[in-house]
């Protein structure tokens, strides 16, 4: 163990008189570290070597980059040419389609102009004809007003102000007495009364005779199930239609003449029901003349005049 400062050997000089020996670093020895100065010099040497290697490899890298750049340019140029060709082709197709559509449009415009001109002429013709018919109707109306019974029109106006199906009002009472009653007055009185009530209640059904007919009831002294005998007139007639009253399952075969009389009365009641329900929106004069036309139909049917198809 060390116990104190070293003692000078005997016979050796001490202090400043000792001989100094110059020291030279021969390089790093095993077990000793390099000095910072040596590390810096070694690092600088390696960097210089790498720089020299990089300088030598630089021309080769530039050549490769140039070659790659030229290849990319060529491929890009080919791609752009193909895209340009496709775009030009699509543009050409669109131009052709636009040209075709322009032709179609021009043709449609020409057809529309011709159609418009034709419709314009037709409309003028219809207006002219309508004006002529209106003038003729007004003339006929004026002439008719000179012949019509003002009492009938007054009764109609009073009924129109408060339309009703009550047959005791003056207007309907006259129509019942002069038209409806005589038109539905058949030989078989009992069935005539039932038919009249069904017409007033709007429960009468008229249908053509089917190939297979259903059994029908008998009216006194009249065979109703016989298609060759009219159940209302009792006359031997070919019956193409039959009637049913209300919900009854009984059918009565009727002749064309009887059917025409029933139909004429039904048409009259249908029209006055429309007026009562507010479905007819006309002035008083057109309504009155329509009712007069329906009354004329009842009078003709009563006298035996009816269409052949009845």
UniProtKB/TrEMBL annotation:
GO terms for cellular component: Golgi to plasma membrane transport vesicle. GO terms for molecular function: guanyl-nucleotide exchange factor activity. SUPFAM superfamilies: Sec2 N-terminal region. Residues 1-58 are annotated as: Disordered. Residues 70-142 form the GDP/GTP exchange factor Sec2 N-terminal domain. Gene3D superfamilies: 1.20.5.4880. Residues 77-125 form a coiled coil. GO terms for biological process: exocytosis. Keywords: Coiled coil. Residues 44-55 have a biased composition (Basic and acidic residues). Pfam families: RAB3A-like_C, Sec2p. Belongs to the SEC2 family. This is RAB3A interacting protein (rabin3)-like 1. It comes from Peromyscus maniculatus bairdii. The lineage of its organism: Eukaryota, Metazoa, Chordata, Craniata, Vertebrata.
């Amino acid at each position: 163990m060390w116990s104190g400062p070293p003692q000078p050997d005997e016979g050796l000089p001490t202090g400043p008189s000792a001989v100094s020996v110059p020291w030279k670093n021969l390089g790093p020895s095993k077990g000793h570290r390099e000095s910072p100065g040596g590390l810096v010099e070694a690092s600088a040497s390696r960097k210089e070597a790498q720089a020299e290697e990089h300088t030598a490899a630089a021309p080769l890298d530039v050549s490769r980059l140039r070659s790659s750049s030229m290849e990319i340019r060529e491929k890009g140029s080919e791609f752009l040419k193909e895209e340009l060709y496709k775009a030009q082709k699509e543009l050409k197709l669109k131009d052709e389609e636009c040209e075709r559509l322009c032709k179609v449009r021009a043709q449609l415009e020409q057809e529309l102009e011709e159609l418009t001109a034709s419709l314009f002429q037709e409309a003028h013709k219809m207006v002219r004809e309508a004006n002529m018919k209106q003038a003729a109707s007004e003339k006929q109306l004026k002439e008719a007003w000179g012949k019509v019974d003002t009492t009938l029109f007054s009764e109609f106006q009073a009924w129109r102000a408060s339309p009703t199906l009550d047959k005791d009002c003056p207007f309907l009472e006259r129509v019942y007495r002069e038209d409806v009653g005589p038109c539905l007055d058949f030989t078989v009185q009992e069935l005539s009364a039932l038919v009249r009530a069904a017409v007033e209640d709007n429960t009468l059904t008229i249908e053509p005779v089917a190939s297979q007919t259903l059994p029908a009831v008998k009216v006194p002294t009249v065979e109703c199930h016989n298609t060759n005998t009219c159940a209302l007139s009792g006359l031997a007639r070919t019956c193409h239609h039959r009637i049913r009253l209300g919900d009854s399952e009984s059918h009565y075969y009727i002749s064309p003449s009887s059917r025409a009389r029933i139909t004429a009365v039904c048409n009259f009641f249908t029209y006055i029901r429309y007026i009562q329900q507010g479905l007819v929106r006309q002035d008083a004069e057109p309504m009155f003349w329509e009712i007069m036309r329906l009354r004329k139909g009842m009078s003709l049917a009563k006298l035996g005049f009816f269409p052949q198809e009845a």
